[in-house]
Amino acid sequence: xxxxxxxxxxxxxxxxxxxxxxxxxxxxxxxxxxxxAKMGIFQSEFGFPVTSHETNYLGANIQLAKDGVMRNMxxxxxxRAVAKDVILSKKLIPDxxxxxxxxxxxxxxxEKKFKGKVDRAQIIEMAASSIKTARDLGIKGIGINAExxxxxxxxxxxxxxxxxxxxxxxxxxxxxxxxYDDPFTIYDRVSQIAKETQMDIELHCHNxxxxxxxxxxxxxxxxxxxxxxxxxxxxINGLGERAGNADLVSVILALKKSSGFGxxxxxxxxxxxxxxxxxxLAKYASYAFGxxxxxxxPGVGQNAFAHESGIHADGALKDRRNYELYDYEELGRGEPxxxxxxxxxxxxxxxxxxxxxxxxxxxxxxxxxxxAAKEILELxxxxxxxxxxxxxxxxxxxxxxxxxxxxxxxxxxx
Length: 414
Fold this sequence. Notes:
3 domains, 8-stranded parallel barrel, globular
């Protein structure tokens, strides 16, 4: 009998970067993809293929994936569920193989966003056409997004999802776009959709009411209970529009350690997930976005394993299980900081060859010639202009190991 599972699709490089007043350089998005792949994430929604300034980054990352740099992680693009956007996506990114196509489904959005120009039937027609176009153009995996699903009519959602399955979509993304659902409503609604359509379900939840991890795993439970696979959308450190998305590490911890999921053979998290990468990934994302990790963040916050009160400290010293559900080593905590905190010799946009050689010497990287060193130095200078902060060790190693990809990623042509 087939065992349905819960998979993680991280959307940091698509939804997380839409956080107001924040952003990532293309090099930083690439490093996040590499970390996510090491963590065993099923899929990274890595950007917008119709956006021209993403073209070089997206193409280079697909090539890196083909070269084995990102293991077996899928790279998916996001676009509106309209045929012309799918056509443009494949024109700009010919090697793109996975996409999520998005269409608004709530009556409120159909009325307010489309200004009465389309009705429910036309919404289905447009979305189905985009899926058929994607299939005709060779897209291998397609998720169809119902934007504002939590405020959409349930019978219409089932009709919409059924039509999308018939058109060729693989998964139905239930978008709690405004964080409107609670764990009970999303369970009931997703159960009905999964039961009626027998279509794999993605959960894309927001945190406007502070319940995003709970709604995400409740939706996943509904999918599994109705014998389809579940795919939870996450972002690193919970970044995202308004109050954010479901935090990647919190979701994984909930699925691995909570009483209802952690010891239940019915709810199986993708076995490729490697939680030991969590600390490094969270710290790097914090550095790249310039957003501190909250002190009380599950797993990776400064106080996640801190004990001060007498009773707690005494209990933790006797046996950590008295007051800790999991060991900090499981998350890879104990790694060094992202950048040097003592004497710092860095190499940047105005760096010279001596400082450059010192930095790479610390990383145990040597160059076969002076010309080769100067070539990488030039890329490092451009990368520093690109990120506007000291490069991390892994960024420097990436540039030295993959100079052609780095050059392409750093090239943005208006």
